[in-house]
Amino acid sequence: MNEPSTVAHLLAPSLQAACRQWADRPAVTFEGTTLTYAEVGRGVARLAGAYRRLGIGVGDRIVCQLPNSPEHVMAINAAWAVGAIHVGTDNDLTGPELAWLVEHTEAAALLFRPHPAAADPLAQVRAVRAVSPETRLVLSGPVDDGSTHRLDDLLAGPDELSDWSPPHAHDDTAHLLLTSGTTGRPKAVMETLPACWAKMQFFVDAFRPGPDDVHLLYLPMAHVFGLRLSMLALLSGGRLAVAERFSPRGALRLVTEERVTVLPGMPAHFTLLLDALDPDEHRVDSLRWAISAASTLPRPLVEQIYDRLGVELLYVYGCSENFTVQTTDRDDILRGSVGRQVFKGPEGTPPDGTVAILEPGGDVPLAAGDVGEIAFGAAHPVRYWKDPDAATDGWYRTGDLGRIDPDGALHIVGRLKELINRGGLHVSPTEVETAVRLHPDVADSAVLATPDPVVGEAICACVVPGDGGAPDVAELRAFLAPVLARHKLPDELCVLESIPRTKIGKVDRPLLRTVVLDEGLPRQRWRSP
Fold first, then answer.
1. Can you tell me whether residue 317 is helix, strand or coil?
2. How many CB atoms lie within 10 A of CB 514?
């Protein structure tokens, strides 16, 4: 494992400052081409100058629908350079979804790149134009309808903006962070630049990146975690090796060829990476840190990450609303904790820095060891775009179930909103699927509630078989019986080729329900002997 850098671990105050400090150093590698910091800086300045010419400025919203790319990095910072509000969103939104977002944010501009294989590449553009004709449309890629601005042209234009350090005031919203929206339209969390920089510094303090680091990024920059990881890599002088999307062999190829030192991913990503890792083909000796988030890390997976990748591990638990706990303590991570170090907010503001376990619906913290809803002390009210009624004060309730052990370490148990009501007993799908994944013949797992005339909701374990084939439901229950209460054991088993997941690696439960229930896949039912 590489030795940590010895440089001071402070982020540059802006990307412009970073581009001046490390002008000739490589900044972003994408599809075999590497841009220097100076080249990235010129792209930002040109795009920001183009925004000014288009009349886009302070407080305007710019929706960025670009995939992971150097242009996405430039778009984030060009929006900030003119005082606008950056809104990152998934590259695969449908026309109605994208049109709703543009209308909801009253976007001044939309940066859009069609899917190359789309039957109608401009369908989303027409949908946006129908509801928001005043929005400037900036198109990336080979498709053109003759009535949009071309991103390539804007990036090749005059370098008009010499000072593009973000002009936002301390309390100005700089970007909107879209929540996952699994139960309806997503909310948009309003975040300031000081809050964004403070959160990135919180991560930097944990794993100390520097100019010698190469950060692999396949997590979408459109999501908050991918955005922060991409920015902190550049603000600490490192190089960002960007992949448009995740594939295990593609990621391992980049680790080998680019000598990656920082490897982020969700537990599902690391499982697939380790399954594909071939010591004869891949070199991982450059790695020094792995960063994981979003879902629980089973102990066997943690042990493999340490042993086979030769890294230290930073585990992050948090949410778009700007509350986070993290740890690099190997003992804590091995015993299933997400740590005890809580983000305290930007310097000079009242610290949040409090995490507690509350009775669902209550305000009184529970005793150590009791399971309840994880809540953060919200000294800073959470604000949502055009949704003042959703703002939070006091406690911010995460909707996650957890406990704090006697040593003060936080453990995640599951999702309160996703609990399976099995005969009046509430069961966390996350807890069950984490245990199922430990079976030697299970490569991946997810748990789903299915209708049952007796208990109301049955527990269906959806599994991807390992090399030895999937266990049957009786074998799986016998394996789980020592670690799960009887009412948590699966009632059904469904074998899948893959578990549907979101872009950041979480189980896509609505899609899983569609695949298993609506498509009527066979489910093996356990019968009591």
1. strand
2. 12
Q: What is the CATH number of the domain that holds 219?
A: 3.40.50.12780
Distances (CA, A) of 123 to 105, 143, 439: 20, 12, 45
Which residue segment(s) compose the domain that 219 sits in? Answer: 15-25+33-245
User: Residue 392 in contact with residue 382, Cβ under 8 Å?
Assistant: yes
Flag the least confident range among 85-89, 230-234, 249-253, 516-520.
516-520
Residues whose CB falls within 8 Å of the CB of residue 324, separated by 6 or more in sequence, listed in order? 199, 202, 316, 317, 318, 342, 343
- pLDDT tens digits for range 441-474: 999 999 999 988 777 889 999 999 988 899 999 9
Question: pLDDT digits over 325-361, tens only?
Answer: 999 999 999 999 999 888 887 776 656 678 999 987 7
Q: Which two tokens stand for residue 204?
A: 């930097």
**375 lies in some domain:** no
Question: From CA 13, how far away is CA 166, in angstroms rounded?
Answer: 9
Last residue of a domain, one of 245, 271, 300: 245
Q: What's the confidence (pLDDT) of residue 388?
A: 75
Whether 107 is in a domain gets the answer: yes
Nearby residues of 338 by Cβ (< 8 Å), 6 or more positions away: 315, 316, 317, 325, 326, 327, 332, 409, 410, 411, 412
Tokens of 394: 């006091």
Q: What is the pLDDT of residues 24-48, one digit of tens each?
A: 999 999 999 999 999 999 999 999 9
pLDDT over 80 (residue 117) = no
Structure tokens at 475: 């074998």
Indicate the number of domains in the chain: 2
Does 450 map to a domain? yes
Whether the Cβ atoms of residue 174 and residue 65 lie closer than 8 Å to each other = no
Q: Tokens at residue 448, please?
A: 């789903």
- Residue ending a domain, choose from 219, 245, 271: 245
Q: Is residue 82 part of a domain?
A: yes
- Number of helices (H), then strands (E), belonging to the chain: the values are 15, 27
